[in-house]
Every structure is written in structure tokens, then in C-alpha cells.
């Protein structure tokens, strides 16, 4: 199957590539429900050596810079308690962690979660974290610009391989909250 974005050699429906996904991502794909069929979530092979965004788009297609999203894990702290959440923003922006995210989490302080926390709590590899398969009790804050795209490139849970996901599917993830202005330049 031809990939809807990028210059990937081949795209495969994610349900046919469960062995290439981390356990939480594979479980989420297996249990997928919603208006977007699981078969429309596509897996593409990628080389982890080209994981850096600038190198990645040079190799797999310049159009991907505007159609890629990053999923970052954020820790919000208030009164000795820490709450984890995910933010999904276009790769051309950054999550407004100290403004919109902090207020949304009702936190006194918000920051990117340490790498060990992000990987340990998600069961995913650093540099490949995806919003599909995150703990169900986490808020998943999604920039409205991500939801508006026909297809978005995100991590697959591993550094090797990526998922191509219809934008509207992000709004249907467990815990998803779509926010205008979450991604800032």
C-alpha cells in the first residue's frame, strides 16, 4: 500500500504489524474503536538513525515537516503530587507547557517528564512515544492543528517505525482533550 504522506516504500495497516509495536501500542491498536477504522492507522518502516526531524524529512519527504507531530510526556506538580499527561503538537511547534498545559493540569509547575519516567510509565522507547497506547487515566492534550490534518506522522512506540494516523483519530483517544493554541511557534 502507498503511504498517504511522505515517500515511504510501503505502508501497512497497523493491525497487521502488531509485532513491530510495543506492547501498550499493540494493545491499543487491537482494542481500537471509534469513527476511524484501525486499518486506517498505518505503520511505516523507518531507520532509527534518521530519527532527528531535520534528517528524517530529508530522507522521507519534505512534506512531512508540516504533517508530523511530537508526543511529549509532561509532569504537572501541585502540593507534592505529580500528575502525568501527554501533549501532541505539530513538529513545527512546541507545547505551551508553562502556560496552557500548566493551567489545564491545575498545576503549580509543569515541565517535561524525565526520560526514565516517560519511558517507564508508557512502556515505549524515548524518541518514539506515541499517544496511542498511553495509560488510560492520563489526559492527552492535542493541538487542534493536529486534528485538522488528513494524516499525521507520529511515533510507533519504538524509535524504528512510525505511524501515519488520520488527524481526527487523535480526538477520539482515551483522555483526549483538543485545545486551540497548545502548540506555539
From TrEMBL:
| Domain of life, source organism | Bacteria
The protein's matches in InterPro entries, at most eight in alphabetical order, are given as: YbaK/aa-tRNA-synt-asso_dom_sf, YbaK/aa-tRNA-synth-assoc-dom
Q: Which CDD domains match?
A: PA2301
Q: Which residues form the YbaK/aminoacyl-tRNA synthetase-associated domain?
A: 64-169
Entry protein name = YbaK/EbsC family protein
Which source organism does the UniProt entry give?
Answer: Streptomyces hirsutus
